[in-house]
Every structure is written in C-alpha cells, then in structure tokens.
Amino acid sequence: MKKLLLLVGVVTASLAVNAQTTILNEDFEGANLPTGWTITTAATDGGWKMGTNTDLQSSSFPIPAHTRMIGTNDDGCNCDKSNDVLESPVLDLSSVTTAALSVDILYGEGTYNGASETFSISVSTDSGATYSQLAVIDGAADWRTELFSLNSYAGNSNVRIKFVYSDGGGWLWGAMIDNFHVYSPAEYDLSVTSLNFPSFISNNQPFTVSGTITNYGGQTVNSFTLNYSVDNGAPVSQTITGLNIAAINGTYNFSHPTTYTPTSTGTKSIEVWATDINLSNADQVPSNDSNTGSLMVASQVVDRVVLVEEFTSSTCVPCASFNQTFDPLLGDNHTNELGANFSNVSAVKYQMNWPSPGNDPSYNNDGSTRRSYYGVNGIPAPFIEGRDMIDPQPDIDAAKLVPSAMAISATATAGVGTKKVDVSVTVTPYIDIPSNAKLFIAVLEKEYNYPGATTTQKNYHHAMRKMLPNGNGIALNGLVDGTPVTKNESYTFSNVGAIPAQLSYDLWTGMDNLEVVAFVQNIATKEIYQSSVAPITVLGVNSISNSGVSVKVFPNPVKDLMVLNINADKNTNASVEIVNTIGQVVYTESISAIAGNNTYNINASNLNAGIYFAKVRLGENTQTVKFSVVK
C-alpha cells in the first residue's frame, strides 16, 4: 500500500484507577453508539465506528486486540477526516470536589507526504456549546491508559468531553479509544508504579531502592513515609518531606535514603510502598499501594560486552539512510574488534527479504528465526541488549555501565581449504539460572560489497551468515553459579566467494573475513546476559599445521608463572599476545623461535583470575591457546 505504520509490541498495563464515585463508565462493548454520545464528521465512512480490532483495522493501520472499542480510521477511508469529533453525554460533576478521566488510547501521531495527524481532548462546562482544550495526545506504539485531572471542572453540572481527530488534510492513520471512565477519586491514593532495579548486583554491594510513585488521589501530596522490605523482612522506613506531587497522575521519582546491602547470593524479593500521606493520612485504596521487584545478587559481576542487533535489508531505503550514520558509529565504537581497540561492543546484523523486491541475497532462515523471535515487522530495527535501541550512542554508553553476572569466552578456527568453522564457547554464570537461558553463536562476514542493492547502500558490515547450530540457539538449562559450561559447534560452508543464493548460508568473500559473536539470552524476557567476540585462527595453505608446530601452556590453570612451549618446524620470528575474554590485550612480547622446542617463562602474577588466550604469531601464521588463571 502507500505507507506502513506499525503499532506493535507488548500492550502496556492499564493504570490502577480506583474510583471512590463513578460518574460515567463506558467500555463500548455494545453494538450501537451508547446513549448521549454524538459524532460529528465530514468523512464519507461516518467518522467514528464501534467494533473489534479486526472490524476497524486496515492494511497499514493494524490494531492490537482490545475487546470492542470506538475509533476513526483514515487509512481505510482516505476521506476527509480533518475534524472527526466524538462527544460524551453531559456529565453532572456538581456533587464532587475532585474528578478524573481515565481512557485507553491507540494513536500513532504519524506523518505522511507532508501531512500530520493530530488527536486532542477538550472539555465543556456548558453542555458542549464551547470547549477548552484539556490535552493534545502524543503518539505511542501501542494501547496505553491515559489519566487526566478534571478537578478544575468539579462542581459543574453540564460537563461534556470531546475527542477530536484530524488527518491534517492528508491520508494518515487514525485513533481508537476504549474504557472511558470519569470518576471522583479517593483523596489519598499513592501507588508505587515502577521500580528501577538493575539486572544484577554483586554480593555485599550497596544498592539504592528507587522508582516512581504516582498520586492517583484527589489531594496534592507534600509528604509520605517510604518503606521497603526484603524477602518479607522488617520494613525499612523513611519520611520524605518537601514534596509537591500533583493530584491525579502526579509523579515523584524516589530514592530511599537507606541502602540495602545483600549478604548472600540469589534472588531477592523487594517490596516498596508508601504510608502516612501528608504526615498522618492512610492510603484509601490499599489494593494498588505496593510494587514488588526481583533483584538478582551474584557472587561477582564483570564488565559487560554490549550486544547490538539490527534487522535491515539491501532493498530498504530507510535502512540505507539509517546505516549511513549507524555503520560509522559502530566503527567508531570498534565493534567486534579484538585487541587493544576493543571497546566492549559486539554487533550482529540480520538481512531481511522485504520490502519489494525482497531479493536480498543474505536473507536466510536463521535471520528469519531471529526476526520472528523479536516480532520485527518494520525495518530498520536496531536492538541493544534485547530491547529497542532508541538513541544509538547514548544507549551504548549506558549499557556499558551495567555489569554482567556472566562471563563468556569463545574461540574459533576457520579453514580456508576445508571451508569449515569450528567454535568453542565457555559460559560461566555467577548466579544460578535454572531455565530460559540460551546460547546463540553467530558467524558473520565482516564486510562485503553488493553492487546489485536497490538502495544507495552497497557495503554491508557484520552480516550474519550462519547461526550455530541454527537461529533457535542452544538451551542452557540449570546453570549453576561458578560452574562453567562449554559448547562446541561446527559448520562447513558449501560455497565461498560469490553472491549467495537467497536462503543459503554461502559466503560472499572468504574464510578470512569471518567474525564470530556468541551471546546468552533469556528467551522469556529477551534480556541479554552477556556477549563475546571470538578470536579466530585462520588455517590455510600457508598456515603452520599442528604437525609443523605446537603451542602449549603449562601449568593450566596458571597461578604466578606461566611456561609457554613452542615446538616449531623452522627458525622464525614470533610474538606473544595474551588476551582476556573481552578482547583486551593484557601482555605482549616479541620472541625468536628456532626449529625445535622453545620454552619461555611469562610472569602471570599481575593477571586477574579468569580465562585468557595466548595468541602466538609465527611469521604470517597464528595459533591460540586457552588457559585460566587462579589466585
């Protein structure tokens, strides 16, 4: 069709609105327009209509299910919806001193071909003769519940509320509403509506309990007592004063003055609630007072390697525009680069088979599986740590600051002659993870050129060519704190060095142009626990075979002194690099090796406990040996 606006995602939870007195509650579940409601429109389709999502949606305006609703669809009509008005019956607020409106809204605030749609709510105190604007609605990607104060209209007996949609004179999308509710709220009603908990903290690390409190009551709140309890233990309480939380949907971001310091590992349940509103008043709606969050306490935490994923295509014009700045940004972050430049950023790109002509040669079933897992229906679609990426560089910077409770080490070999890639990944959790963890191994091409792309983008980076064993990943059930788990996977490519056939796993270039990214993901929540970039040893015609050279490290594990044994088949110059699991070079030395057995002592006393890789370069050839350091 002419455009695509995708309203997808998880439906947001409705606000907990607890009415002391209901004035009007309309859920639009009937077949006809409810009594007292009126529609004004110049549209040929009648303007506002009632029905289910399937009744009201159109090809470019998909509507997530929400029982029956009322709405106006400009996409399906392409008619004059410059002033589509829906008015409520007259509401009598003469007997109340506080009033509120709660309503569920679906509206995207789109722009197409220079026209922009708008959606607003207005209120009348003279039965609809004149109106004043209450709110202009911002666009969002799904249904959400909006709450508005009507306190300034309390005491009036001729109140009407109207919703006004305009397509701006263009061919836009539309707006839907449901569950219209006008009520007089309780005077005192505080709710802890969100908690700001990190994914993990380390044992004995102080943690500040923080989040957001919303005032659903009719009175402004200037003080309350903030409480939290860990695993149903004794409450930790502190009076918070000097506040000015507005009535009916005012919010306050809190940080409890008393930190919590765990003394044992595992999952901690932390409940937070407010009492003693304005010093002495009890909350009158106890059903929505508290919020409980889970905090994972790990035996230790390590630096995070941030995972960026992008769904894109060589036939997608917006993708080409996005990647014009996104690819240089990944380069500036030294993405997937091992060695001294590695800045803890990994990336995997999945090429898709749309929009038309949908003939991207790099599209294959493994990418399709990941697309289905995330529910991607529009591209470009960048993700960071398993969630939508909004602002790339700030999102990357923020994600780096969040430690991980898991270490991943990975190594790979790529055979030029055999066309085979072998990958070994060791996952070491620092918390118990009973279920829902999966290991994903992505074999990528660093870069290739595709002159046949239908957009301005001809160069492609970090493109996934094969997931090992496939896009569904490897289940890691029953992970135990401190216990490493190793998985080994292999794949032999059929064709190398030509434009791949779509749906194949063929390579554009060669085995020396591969990257390997491994990551562990919670498949239930989509959270990324940790990622890693594997150093790759390329074995080819000129490589030193195992029969010609051997590299050994002993003892293994190493404590203070590491002995490196190199058995070479000829005299050669060599270098040694020791690399940690996040790709940082922690030791380097140039050496000379003679034909035969060579032994070198390396001081490992300054290395932290963990897993390392000794990378030995002999001439143009490289061999890598994994070892561990214990203290």
Could you state the CATH homologous superfamily of the largest domain? Immunoglobulins
Tell me the overall shape: flat
| CATH first level of the largest domain | Mainly Beta
* CATH topology (fold) name of the largest domain: Immunoglobulin-like
* Residue runs with pLDDT of under 50 for 5 or more positions: 1-19, 541-547
Rg over alpha carbons: 30 Å
Beta-strand percent range: 35-45%
CATH architecture of the largest domain: Sandwich
Number of helical regions: 5
Helix content: under 10%
Structurally, the number of domains stands at: 4
What is the count of β-strands? 41
The computed structural class is: mainly beta
Q: How is the main sheet built? A: 6 strands, antiparallel
Q: CA-to-CA gap between the ends?
A: 64 Å
How does this model look, in words?
The protein is mainly beta. The protein has 4 domains: 167 residues, Jelly Rolls, CATH 2.60.120; 109 residues, Immunoglobulins (Immunoglobulin-like, Sandwich); 234 residues, Immunoglobulins (Immunoglobulin-like), CATH 2.60.40.10; 80 residues, Immunoglobulin-like, CATH 2.60.40.3080. It contains 5 helices and 41 strands. Strands 1, 3, 4, 6, 11 and 13 form a 6-stranded antiparallel β-sheet that branches. It has a 5-stranded antiparallel β-sheet with strand order 2-5-12-9-10, with no helix packed on it. The protein has a 5-stranded mixed β-sheet with strand order 15-21-20-17-18, with no helix packed on it. A hairpin with a 4-residue loop joins β26 and β27. The N terminus is likely disordered.
